Structure to design on (470 residues):
């Protein structure tokens, strides 16, 4: 089949089956598949709702003529068997983040409005996962029509724990061989070929005095804190409000300080204002600290003096990745000491061990210790390989662009595999209208036309990957 014939058939397939595809997306969106470890059980390791979504996806795969398998509830896969056991694979996921507030449409039902689909998971990642299954159906149908097998086995891996710990894919790789090449339809076009390393740690102070009765800031370690509060004993000082700092006198002579920052994801802190840093500077400038409290806050001032790690002596950049980032995520008083979490996304010019050494040596000068909580090495697939170039070339043919792949600071399933990347369907070159929410947001949604185009891109890309030598 020529490329032109392939493209024509892919377009006809997408148009003919689109309403059925939307129905399948809706079947998955109906499940509020947030991780629920409190109700986990054998066969349902991430809770009953995530398992229900996984089970529904495998049911769709079976109905589409794929060879579907439930892997003890951890994860699933569906195959189009090929002439070789070597695999070309896709990987998506059926778990979601909590719906949250602010929805104008039912988050657990697909709403079709003005050419867009709205619902939790429509974009991240129930819609794209459904596209991957239908792309596989295209090849299953073709094999039955022609009587010819694909050169390689086409495997659609269906994840179930991506939004939290990715324990599903770790389990998978402990039990199954790696595919020769894989892409994840869970990110942006044209292609993400690298992901920074991820280093997170907790800085722990020595025992502190009680000038700061309590301190709390941030909600998660991988985000710049938008708000932070401290309950303090001001002593002889009269504390006055300052820019972005509220002062409220409480009982027993205590004062509550509230800092208001501008939050951001840890991987993209540019333009943010860390509320913890505001609070730290206020406490130091107004001498609301004693002994070990002051030492800890002086170290904190260094932490929050930069978001590129320069104040900590770890700033760097390489030929593939943007500069290193490092932010403080959460702070709390725990017992008699303070704990501050750090999150760094680092390129290949430094290692997590080196970050630990440099930050640990600096922290020790201020009476603090550093406990490493996570260190994921950078992921990079050479963007010049034929397989990676195939994906980008196919995208450019469909969009008329001359785009190139890029790297990110976040993490996707792709980083767990030996070769591949993250490949659409979101496309910053074709933004959504303001009333359509992004992934993880209220009114999460995506364009039906862009979904149709993505399906065609996936079909043609897979066909071209099947022609390569692995």
């Amino acid at each position: 089949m020529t490329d032109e014939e392939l493209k024509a058939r892919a377009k006809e397939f997408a148009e003919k089956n689109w309403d059925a595809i939307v129905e399948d997306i809706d079947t998955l969106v109906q499940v509020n598949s947030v991780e629920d470890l409190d109700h986990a059980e054998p066969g349902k390791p991430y809770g009953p709702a995530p398992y229900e979504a996984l089970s529904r996806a495998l049911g769709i795969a079976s109905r589409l003529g794929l060879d579907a398998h439930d892997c003890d509830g951890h994860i699933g896969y569906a195959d189009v068997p090929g002439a070789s056991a070597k695999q070309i694979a896709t990987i998506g996921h059926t778990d979601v983040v909590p719906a949250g507030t602010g929805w104008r449409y039912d988050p657990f039902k697909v709403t079709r409005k003005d050419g867009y689909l709205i619902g939790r998971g429509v974009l991240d990642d129930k819609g794209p996962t459904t596209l991957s299954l239908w792309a596989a159906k295209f090849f299953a149908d073709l094999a039955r029509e022609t009587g010819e097998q694909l050169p390689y086995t086409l495997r659609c891996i269906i994840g179930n724990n991506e939004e939290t710990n990715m324990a599903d894919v770790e389990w998978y790789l402990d039990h199954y061989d790696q595919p020769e090449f894989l892409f994840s339809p869970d990110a942006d076009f044209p292609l993400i070929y690298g992901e920074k390393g991820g280093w997170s740690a907790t800085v722990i102070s020595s025992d502190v005095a009680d000038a700061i009765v309590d301190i709390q800031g941030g909600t998660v370690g991988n985000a710049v804190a938008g708000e932070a509060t401290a309950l303090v004993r001001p002593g002889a000082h009269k504390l006055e409000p300052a820019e972005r700092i509220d002062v409220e006198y409480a009982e027993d002579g205590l004062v509550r300080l509230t800092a208001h920052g501008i939050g951001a994801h840890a991987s993209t802190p540019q333009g943010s204002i860390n509320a913890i840093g505001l609070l730290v500077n206020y406490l130091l400038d107004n001498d609301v600290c004693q002994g070990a409290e002051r030492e800890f806050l002086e170290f904190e001032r260094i932490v929050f003096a930069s978001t590129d790690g320069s104040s900590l002596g770890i700033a760097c950049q390489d030929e593939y990745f943007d500069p290193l980032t490092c932010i403080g995520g959460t702070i709390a008083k725990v017992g008699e000491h303070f704990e501050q979490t750090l999150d760094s996304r680092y390129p290949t010019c430094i290692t997590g061990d080196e970050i630990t050494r440099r930050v640990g040596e600096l922290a020790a000068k201020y009476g603090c210790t550093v406990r490493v909580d996570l260190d994921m090495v950078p992921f990079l697939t050479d963007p010049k390989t034929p397989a990676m170039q195939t994906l980008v070339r196919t995208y450019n043919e469909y969009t008329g662009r001359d785009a190139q792949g890029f790297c990110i600071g976040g993490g996707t399933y792709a980083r767990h595999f030996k070769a591949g990347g993250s490949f659409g369907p979101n496309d910053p070159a074709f933004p959504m209208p303001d009333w359509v929410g992004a992934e993880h947001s209220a009114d999460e949604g995506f364009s039906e036309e862009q979904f149709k185009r993505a399906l065609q891109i996936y079909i043609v890309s897979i066909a071209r990957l099947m022609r390569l030598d692995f």
Q: What stands out?
A: The two ends are 21 Å apart (CA to CA).
